[in-house]
């Protein structure tokens, strides 16, 4: 349909005047005479302002559409702008995601380090247990040799006065046993140092974990 403006006449203008009169909140009382005069133009402008369209005084397509829709102004949004809120929260979520990923990497690295430390602790613990068992065996061996030497030394003191030849033979046995005892003691000392080193490694692991 064609636009209606000041100076137009006819049934379409009458129809417009009737519809404008029927808009409750507009408050106009036009004479339905089919003449688009200054009062009708003023009523159109008032309606255009009411429904928030461009104020021209011309009954154009947009004005027609608003009038035929009931003549009510467009509703106002009563809820805050979620577009800006969404953008803001998306930034927060993105920062949280990056922070979470960074923390996840840190935790993964810490877990790997902890696993390595636990492996070191287990190895050191196994080493200490092995050395303790070996030391028990070495000490038992040395104790047996030492007891034998002590007994033979007592016998030697008697034989040295009564049977020098046997005493000399026994002395060779005592000297050989003494060499063996020193070898066992040397292994025992080395194991003891290895135990100290392993214990230090365990303490390092404990300190690193704590």
From TrEMBL:
Residues 83-134, 171-198 form a coiled coil. Residues 9-67 form the Peptidoglycan binding-like domain. This is Peptidoglycan binding-like domain-containing protein. Keywords: Coiled coil. The keyword Transport does not apply. It comes from the Bacteria. The keyword Glycosyltransferase does not apply. InterPro entries: Peptidoglycan-bd-like (IPR002477), PGBD-like_sf (IPR036365), PGBDSf (IPR036366).
């Amino acid at each position: 349909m064609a636009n209606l403006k000041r100076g137009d006449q006819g049934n379409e203008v009458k129809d417009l005047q009737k519809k404008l009169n029927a808009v409750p909140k507009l408050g106009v009382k036009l004479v339905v005479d089919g003449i688009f005069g200054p009062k009708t133009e003023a009523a159109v402008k008032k309606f255009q302002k009411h429904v928030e369209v461009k104020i021209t005084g011309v009954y154009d397509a947009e004005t027609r559409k608003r009038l035929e829709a009931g003549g009510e102004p467009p509703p106002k949004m009563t809820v805050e702008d979620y577009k800006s809120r969404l953008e803001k929260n998306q930034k927060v979520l993105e920062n949280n995601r990056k922070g979470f990923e960074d923390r996840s990497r840190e935790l993964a690295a810490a877990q790997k380090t902890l696993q390595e430390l636990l492996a070191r602790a287990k190895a050191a613990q196994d080493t200490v247990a092995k050395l303790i068992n070996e030391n028990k065996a070495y000490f038992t061996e040395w104790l047996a040799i030492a007891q034998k030497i002590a007994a033979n030394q007592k016998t030697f003191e008697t034989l040295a006065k009564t049977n020098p030849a046997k005493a000399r033979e026994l002395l060779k046995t005592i000297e050989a046993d003494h060499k063996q005892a020193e070898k066992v003691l040397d292994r025992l000392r080395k194991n003891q140092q290895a135990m100290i080193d392993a214990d230090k490694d365990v303490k390092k692991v404990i300190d690193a974990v704590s």
